[in-house]
Amino acid sequence: MTVHLAASAHAEAAIIADTLRRAHLIDGVPWSHMAVLVRSLRRAPAMLAHALARAGVPVTVPAGGGSLAEQPAARALLTVLAVTADGLDAEQALGLLTGPIGRLDPVSLRALRRALRRLAPIAASMMCWWPRSPATNRPV
């Protein structure tokens, strides 16, 4: 991974265009294997499309125009990132288990719930010796 800092939106667009062009010409990466993700098509500046076109990078804007965060897979990934920082609640757990990441159907979800109920006494007895975070007093 490489991080670039840009002084302006124009400089950022030029860096993106240059990076993609170099990947294609020097490393042989096909254009079809590249993408630029933006927070919103409404917010994506026209200067980015212009910089890409000026550098000879093909530009295709997908139809739909919705936010990336509205896509089920992206929403699931954002949930995973959030729970790693903030912890997991029951609604988030259910969403991850039944969404694009876990893909559990209702039958599999019921089987998982039954298995967890059977294991709850064992897990509870194990938690008494499990290390806890001094900051939160929660198991680590």
UniProtKB/TrEMBL annotation:
Keywords: ATP-binding, Helicase, Hydrolase, Nucleotide-binding. Residues 1-140 form the UvrD-like helicase C-terminal domain. Gene3D superfamilies: P-loop containing nucleotide triphosphate hydrolases, PCRA, domain 4. GO terms for molecular function: ATP binding; helicase activity; hydrolase activity. This is Helicase, UvrD/Rep family domain protein. It comes from Mycobacterium xenopi 4042. The lineage of its organism: Bacteria, Bacillati, Actinomycetota, Actinomycetes, Mycobacteriales.
